[in-house]
Write a structure and sequence with these properties.
This protein has 676 residues and is α+β, with helices and mostly antiparallel strands. 55% of the residues lie in helices and 6% in strands.
Length: 676
Amino acid sequence: MNPFLGKFDTPHGVMPFDKIKNEHYMPALEAAIEIDRKEVEAIKTNSEEPSFENVIEALDKTGERLGYVTGVFFNLHSANTNDEMQEIAKELSPKLTEYGNEVLLDEVLFEKIKAVFDKRDSLGLDSEQLTLVEKFYNSRAQNGALLKGDKRDKLKELNKELSKLSLEFGDHLLKETNSFEMIIENKDELIGLPDSAIEAAEMTAKEKGQAGSWVFTLDFPSFFPFMMYAEKRELRERLYRAYISRANNGNECDNNEIVKKIANLRYEKASLLGYASHADLTLKERMAAKPDTVKTFLEDLLNKAKPVAEKEIKDLIEFVKENNGPEDFQAWDYSFWAEKLKKKKFDINDELLKPYFKLENVVDGVFTVASKLYGLSFKENKEIPTYHEDVRAFEVFNEKNEFQSVFYADFFPRGGKRNGAWMTSYKDQYMRDGVDSRPHISIVCNFTKPTETKPSLLTFNEVLTLFHEFGHALHGMLSKGKYESLSGTNVYWDFVELPSQILENWAFEKECLDLFAKHYETGESIPQEYIQKIKESSNFHEGRATLRQISFALVDMAWHSENPSKITDVSAFEEKITERTRILPKVAGTASSCAFGHIFQGGYSAGYYSYKWAEVLDADAFEAFKEKGIFNREVADKFRSEILEKGGSEHPMELYKRFRGKEPTPDALLKRGGLL
């Protein structure tokens, strides 16, 4: 029996990960497509006059089994892949794209949707129902349903090719990341590194059959401490160059041609659909609405951040000279010397803080924050099957002890897992026949693994990452919508980061840190002076960090807001675009686009600006909490009811104004970042 196709005999009907094997995916996909096709056919052949109930609501109910299969496959393709899965993806993804085209571009179905759309204002629909009608109509109109004949066939081919290239891009990046190892056999070359990083490298060496040496990789928990602490400049340079040249080495995993193809195919698709660019098409369903708005937003931030960043780097280079550092300051020197300056200015660093951030304690901390704000409780359930032994599964309950969600947590790097951190869903929330069907939510991270002598101790940045992803998870877990298509994180892309980024603010507050930041050996609470230093140092080199984010966003918009057909050299193209944001010498071999998974593999194309856009929202929104107390239930209840529960049921600005009472301004962000 294919586990995807029967009843899930599991707690809360979760995915039966313990029974799923690679050979199940393709048969399950084909069967699920047939089930979905019959459900869609029933809507198309219904002889009654098209109505909200028999077209729109009926469509929202289709595709459950197909969602299970694709949700598991693509989530695991990112979090726990292998060579066999990557081969399956080459068959599965085009087949899924082909079927997606079939449904999106079905003329009979679109006419029924259009019939409801055209009379939507006379149907007495509530705001959520109206949003659903518009979502189904716009998603088709903006993806080719109005095209005819050859143009429609051309669009199908473009979609299929884009799907294939995106997978290829991701596979190349993962292989390039995994293939690099910097093997160190002389302990003298580890000078400056903290014991935790040395021990982790020793453990990695054993895992890779290099016992007796130390192995550093391009996984962030290995790469980042080396760049920050290793005294050997030539080794920092070697590791840095390997990191920035991923998928840009002229080998079988090179992504230069792929990114150009993806950008050109996206432009061609947008043109076919009547839009000036991929960004014009994409931003139709974003708060920003059009490329000029994004460019103006980034330009304003750039003008405020650049003078601050230039002064930060000028001061840093002065510090380097005073301390007999290198005359030719380079990118691989930045983290190392910035950390030294930060320690001098604030007398604080990651190694001082890490003993207070044992992973299990930080997890308990975010759970406690969720309890104090929203009345949630978390209970680990080892009967819930998971896809890897590192993954923990929890049942989540509300204040009435009613089941709220399943929550999976996957924290450590491994060979089949891409870099970074993300939240995802295996099942979204929806209401059906009076029953509230609750979601299954997951967060995936790449934190420092426990060693033989120490538990997993997080850097403060990793603490922020955990709070960030858990904020996304709360958005999914607290969803209270009627329709799956609008629930949880199914919101405008430049609004989706608000729930995640606002939660990071709690990690800077004493009232929050006192809940969980305790020394892993002594149990002593984090000293007040450390908390004060965390807050004081939070703006350290904020100008440079802002400039870095703007740089990525500008590269994204440059690829997607113009015709990219004249771009022949990716590195030269980037050099020109990032000239105004560059404050350190450009490193030869840099082509960040080749490893820019957010826009060429993930869903952030023409959307990377969203991180800074959402920071404006989160800084403004957190002011409401600060005014009445960071755990004030009145404010938390309003944020929950107007933002977290609502998903994409209404335009995000309307939701935000109902929470805050006004539109956001960038003042709180600029003040928080010290950029005013």
